[in-house]
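Researcher: Checking consistency across runs. Here is Intraflagellar transport protein 20 again:
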Amino acid sequence: MFGIYFVHLKVRAEILDYYKNLKETMADSVPVSDVVCVDDMGKARVMEPVLADKVAGLRDKCAEFTSDIEVYRESVDTFIGVMDHLAKQVEREKRDAIVVSNKLASLPNKAEEEIAKLKSQIEQKTTELERYRIEHRSLQKIESDQTDLINRLSFQN
């Protein structure tokens, strides 16, 4: 029993030393009675009940803020997902526009090629027409000569 009493005295002395050191470190800014108090349940508290209530209120507000931040993070994640989808869609449209632009740019080249091809065909047909005209004149001359020959031979008989 004497040992328990001695331990109790030792603990009490340590607590008193702690409060004395606490009082010295806090100087005159905060009295020890404001730091340690007894609540309604008879428990020793490091802070006043009003301050403890404020801390509990702050804890609740922090939990609410954390919840709001989580909702915000989910909204941001959703927004980022939508933006990624739109970015992919824009890239597809951009590629399609480039393909159409390239096709459109190649149209004048194709038109020039078609014009050159048609001009070549016109030249060939013109040359062929000129050859047929010469052949036609030649045949007309032969026909005329033959008609003259037939007429001469018919009149001689």
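Researcher: Does this match what you'd expect to see?
Model: One thing to look at in this run: The chain is about 85% helix and 5% strand.
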